[in-house]
Amino acid sequence: MPELPEVAYQKKYADATILHKKIVNVETGDKKLFQSSKSEFEETLKNNQFTGSERLGKYLFLNLEKHGVLVVHFGMTGRLEYYQHEELPKYAQLTLTFEDHSRVSFTCPRKFGKLYLAESLIEFQKRNGLGIDALALQKVEFLEILKSKTGTIKALLMNQKQIAGIGNLYADEILFQVKIHPATKVNELSEKDKLNIYDKIEEVLEVVKKVREEGQKLPESYITTVRKKGANCPRNEGKIEQIKVSGRTTYFCPNCQEEKS
DNA sequence: TAGATTGTTACCTT
DNA sequence: AAAGGTAACAATCT
User: Fold this and answer.
1) Domain co-membership, A180 together with A202
2) pLDDT averages per 10-residue partition of chain A, 261 residues
3) What number of other Cβ atoms are within 10 A of residue A239's Cβ?
4) Full domain range(s) for residue A82
5) What is the CA A229 to C1' C9 distance in angstroms?
6) Which positions in strand B are less than 7 Å from the protein's CB atoms?
7) Which pTM was predicted?
């Protein structure tokens, strides 16, 4: 599920389903997901309730009436499922039953998700060194982050300690939209390039966030819609290629996104 | 079937 | 010291 736009959708989903209801039962799954002891989760959540939610990057914060906040990281396959029936969904790792008998499960087939207990969003952000949320990022902050960096622009966009919220998919999308080769070194970018990248970060994330929240389709001009080796470029100027950049599989159009020399 | 998949991070090298 | 690249994690799909 999980880059910034998908987590924004999970926040909307949580807001519509699980706020202001007393939690009467807590069931936990594989302990590798739980970043505090499972008994601590059980004790903290039982007889408590969610009062609201916040999002930072790819993390969802479910604020509790007492004892701080439940923090959810969705890994690659995590999601919230709200339902009224008895049987647990497949891959349920945390299941809360509310006073009205409805339930919510955090499901996570690949178990890359993580659950934390924290005092607050700010405390969690500091403790984990998370950067500024990509949609709250100011132009000057972005330019400051780019200073004296030597790695690839793609790796920087995905570095959660610098900018929080962009992953492999939308890093590729941003660089496709701005027509910059993903392996370009940050120190080789012109000032114009940098400003264009900043604008596309905001544009792409806003567009995809809205698409996810409203259940719409991505624009046909997006490489994400044809993310496959040999596919036709949405601009019809070439064939999509697949390479590795900073260890991650990367899709781009060599025709639109020329390599700097 | 080998390699791919939206996540992070420990561990290497420079 | 710090920054950047890589492999590993788990389960499934093509």
Assistant:
1) yes
2) 91 97 96 93 97 96 95 94 93 96 95 94 92 94 90 94 94 95 92 95 96 92 91 88 90 89 61
3) 12
4) 4-128
5) 26
6) 4-9
7) 0.95
d(CA A127, CA A112): 20
Nucleotide nearest A113, from its CA to each C1': B7
A41 vs A152: CA distance, rounded Å = 39
Total number of domains constituting chain A: 2
Say how far A158 CA is from B13 C1', in Å: 21
Q: Which residues pair with A222 in a beta bridge?
A: none
Burial class of residue A220, CB neighbours in 10 A (0-12, 13-18, 19+): exposed
Question: Which CATH number characterizes residue A182's domain?
Answer: 1.10.8.50
Give A169 CA → C4 C1' in Å. Answer: 21
Same-domain pairing of A124 and A136:
no
